[in-house]
Predict the structure.
Amino acid sequence: MSTTDPTVQFFQYDIPALEAGSYTLTVTQHAADTRANPAFDETFAFVRTIAVSGDRFTVEGSHLGAVFPPTGSGEFGQCLPHVTCVRPTLPWERAVQADSFGTPWLAVLLFDSETYAPPPLQSLTVADLARSQGSLPAATASYADADAAFAPELGESWTDPLHAIDVDRATFCALAPTLLDLPLLAHARKLIEASTDDDPLDDPGHVSLIVGNRAIESDATGTRSYTAHLVSLEGLGPFLPNAAGDVPAALAAFTAVRLISLRSWSFVSHDPAETFAGYFDNAAFSTGPLTITAPAPTSAPPPTTLNAALAQGYLPVNQRTRLGERSIAWYRGPCVPYATAQPAIGDPNAPEGAATADALLRYDDADTAMFDASYAAAWQLGRLLALRDTAFSQALYDWKRQAADASAQAALHAAVTEALGLETTSDVRRIAAELIAAIYAPETLGAHPR
């Protein structure tokens, strides 16, 4: 694991040097001599066609990374589904329409079992995307209807296999992003200060993300299933709806749209009805101890360990990880049934700083093989309270800005004093005097503009 906090740099887009597609290179040489006998005037042209290959009808497996939410069940309410691209330029290697700089050609469409039923995934060929090949239904629009120049590129053929979905027009207009929204639904990121370890999971490097435009809704019953599709929007700019979801003129004559599905996965968001407010409302306030009515965990550690943990204020509670896995974890609130000592600053037993809540999860490998989520929960609660406090957030921002300014001024002061051969403790007046003397010294005066 990294011993220092990594720094992540975000990029609005990561445009490749050349978009995928065919290019024609023409070199022309013109030679003329009217003085010769006979005179000549000739033009010679050298023409070559090159192709920049790239994913189009399918995506190479190594170019895509993890998806979120993962296949299965978990607490994913209010999350946006997204796909990680290990090939960081992938979302911008093709165009939605002409002059669409910075607009990705990929999008994540989210269907669900209650409002927008997922269409069946079909195994087709490239020929099934073009009406000229006679395999596209008359009422279904596809890529060749939006772009008359649609055709296989060098190295591709009409018989190449692909997966596609037929989305009815109303659903497409409701789920598809607008042309203005697309640039906001993809970005690149790079870990610019990573660990020096060889652990690949600790250094994700340079990747890009394609984010869906529809949030997953909370569901206490867990009966609502979702299906996400990573689809190609290459050349489909005329088909995209506006902000109001109106039917574009280019789709007026069609009832459905056929889209290439480059990746699809399904999941269930099972969000429990219990919330922090709900637990607080169920708390029994009295002159005695504060108690909360909670269901018993599905399993428990050995009785001797359990009794010792209870004596320290711990409780075994049901835990669901970020990936939806079910487990049991220890939890203890800020109130403990015994006196505690506050460690001094610098004491090795003092709590360490952490950049995320997960960094504070503790694992008891020796006795119970359970996580202790107490500090992680406290970190998350503190972060939420801080973000809710406008005055605190503004003060924190001002402090960070002042610290950054002070750091920059200190670096500038060190650089100037070193260049002038001064002590680093020299004040501003001494530095200014030495700088003026150096600029206007007789031996260097001619080297400076007057």
In short: The radius of gyration is 31 Å. The longest strand covers residues 256-269. Residues 390-420 form the longest helix (31 residues).
